[in-house]
Amino acid sequence: MEIIPQPKVNIILDASKIDSFETCPAKYNYRHNLNKTLPIINKSKALDSGSLAHGGLEVYFKSLKEGLHYDERMIKTLTKIQELSSDITTSNSEPEDVSIVCKAIEQSCDYWRAEDENSLEVLNVEEPFAYELFSDESIRIIISGKIDLLVNFKSIGRGSSYENLPIDHKTFSRESMLLRKSNQFINYCNAVGSNYLIVNRIGLQKTLKSEDKFKRLPLSYDPIYIQSWKDNLIKMILNNYLTCVAENSWPEISSSCNKFNRLCEYYNVCDSSGGVQDKLDKLERDYIDGEVWDVTKGLGND
Prior knowledge:
By secondary structure, the protein is α+β, with helices and mostly antiparallel strands. It is built from eleven helices and ten strands.
């Protein structure tokens, strides 16, 4: 009897999904399988400010790539932030919060203007990617992502240069430790074949000096470090993630309910009395259908 080969099952994950699953499979299930999220009015201030900043910086660096003058770049950038903040379906920022983001972005772009204009060759802005991490006779694991900014960098005067250098923008209101062991950062480096990544930190504080608010911090990843991340990720997906998928069972991790003094957005669901159906009823009643999470949207399209 002829055996007809079965098509491989594609498992497509990105750093945000990986982080969510590693933090708590139940959280992953609610957000990415059931596609439920809190109404926009409950969106955290930090997350909203970060979204506005990213939207503005996307316009800024696309304009830099196009060769637009600094003044025109800034007008387009600040206009974009105002447009995003006025969309009540995606933002709940107060006017004062929007003003803080606009000022921080304008100051940051001015602070780095000389370096951006003289040392950066912008390759891509908010460009999605996907690559095969693992494949056997039945399963293919694909890891995706979207890099804020990809550049070639040449340091004027020092002679050092870096090709395919990913840059990730991060806004912050209080100083915190920058960790090298990040699924997002290692994924970016692996995707573009870089051993280095820059975190473009943008402080939203009103009183700090520019050199304390605006920092571009380098992180390095040697091939052994990246390979170790890949090996661990493959084991986690094959041993843990696929078990949850096969059994349709997504356990709650109680130690993840309150991370860094931030309550999980699904805490009230997991804390509900009753069985699985009671929790699903609460999810249906108190949460809304979110936009399907897909960082590869537009991949391969012109």
